[in-house]
Design goal:
Length: 268
Amino acid sequence: MTEHFTDDTLTQDAFLNGRVMVRQPRNGYRAATDPVFLAASIPARAGQSVLELGCGAGVASLCLGARVQGLQLTGVEVQAPYAALARRNALENSVDMTVWDADLTALPPQLRDQRFDHVIANPPYYAAHGPSARDAGRDRALREETPLAAWVDVALRRVRDGGHVSFIHLTERLPELLSGIMTRASVIVLPLAARAKRPARRVIVQARKGGRAPFVLLPPLVIHQGDTHPGDGEHFTDAVRALMRDAHALDMAAMARGWNMSRSRDIR
């Protein structure tokens, strides 16, 4: 991977129907829908602080900043070229975001002394011993160097009591996520299924530090309409289109309350 990206190696991509324009490496790690789902799920309010671990080019934080004004956004990114790109993207989108070049297991003292209202992360999906990508930056973004348990521990240490930690990850890694969270927070899990009646491949895990509410596993959010994907269109369901294009919030706490009320009626 080069030390810096040049304009001829970058594309400029629209998120949230063009409300966020992000420069990304043409051949490196490229964000798609996952950071948008993650950003939509964060129950942030104006004036609150948000730390993103492994922010890459900044897509999740910038989408969150576009939906909720007045946030104090901070990103941590171990790959310096991507950290520089996140700073550039924040500046070009008029979003106030501080980005640190750092390994999340060796945060600078300024971050270790802070507690945030929200900590969010989209950790690498694939095991360290898996097949490697041809682009070194993409490979490092997708293959796990730091164990998932460390991501969870750092996130919970950096969030204030009563604050929220949110992850998006593969469903198969859900047991590892929960094992590091359940004794320290209340948890809501939202599976993401590509289509109706298909297994959920990804999950959003949202934890409230120090919370004592019962664990909630929500019904899957279905991403695409129909059984197949004809043509080049996106074919999002109405609910997902509202998240992806109109910057609607994905209120997992409200979904959990609704699920608990319906369950209570069923029991009676």
